[in-house]
What does this fold into?
Amino acid sequence: MRNPSTATSAGGGPQAATTTAKTPCCSKVGLKRGPWTPEEDELLVNYIKKEGEGRWRTLPKRAGLLRCGKSCRLRWMNYLRPSVKRGQIAPDEEDLILRLHRLLGNRWSLIAGRIPGRTDNEIKNYWNTHLSKKLISQGIDPRTHKPLKPESVDHHKASSSKANRKTSSSKSNNNNPAGAAASSGVEETNSGGSTQIISNEQNLYIENTSLDHHYHINGNNNNASHGYSSLLNCGDGTCGMYLRSNVQGLNNEEDEDINYGTDDVFSSFLNSIINEEAFTSQQHQQMQQQADLIVPSSDPLVSISTASTIGGGSSWESVLMSSTFNRNDPIKKVNDHL
DNA sequence: AAGAAGAACAACCGCACGGGT
DNA sequence: CACCCGTGCGGTTGTTCTTCT
It folds into this structure.
């Protein structure tokens, strides 16, 4: 195993630029590409320590680097940031990656956002080199988390083909969590037994029968028509939450009252999905109390939605998760979504 | 010991999106 | 509205390292 802390062992380097017809990411010739040297790292780190991140396009010149801004940003984000954790992926991290991938598909930045110290690139590489193969060896399709059919194609290889690149990398087409599962209208049961994933063209429903948990993940939620634009983020900017009343059950799409949950409640909710743990009655009561603040008590059904914006920044990635409960019996949810 | 094959992963690439003008 | 810029994302590439034969 190579030492991951060294900057001189990686591929995709200058040779690639000179031997292929590809145009480099930066049009300017004369910029250095390929592995970073310790001297370059030092220049970049010192500059960012002094001036801060951002303005990547002009940063190289200001920092005295013969690199393009993209390259600088990548190096900083994936390697040089103090918060980046190096070293082997721990078993619990691996387990979390698997669970998150089952929920979110190839949303590497979202997955990385839930795993402290790990970058999307690292998780993506780990998935491609370890986990996808591991799943295949277990007879599980790494894209859908469904059992592999004998005649099915090798999705890992298929997804690596150049032909698939454009469509598969398109964000507008990539908002369906769990990738292919959500586009095929399938119904499935995970290997653990109790979690069902039911999906159609736009939505993904997760139903944990043993825990009486039902979640709805809308794969087409990246618009502002449901009050997202005014959604508050939680303290660290990684998540947001709103409550929505549903006077006519779940058919009322009006976000007449928007309120915001706490980070704790959101995290509990998300973790309950990730970990398939019981979302405790106390947590439900917390949610109900918040709902009571804004929804007239005559409305029996309340939908609670959470929108994760992990990654945040200029690309506001979100995954909507909502559950509905009857305020008269908040523990047992109503699941008219399904 | 040497070559081949496979594994690992940093880096590159094209594209999409939001904000500013 | 159109364009530009900055930023970030997911897919892919290509070199090095490790293991196998």
About this structure: Chain A has twelve helices and eight strands. Residues 120-137 of chain A form the longest helix (18 residues).
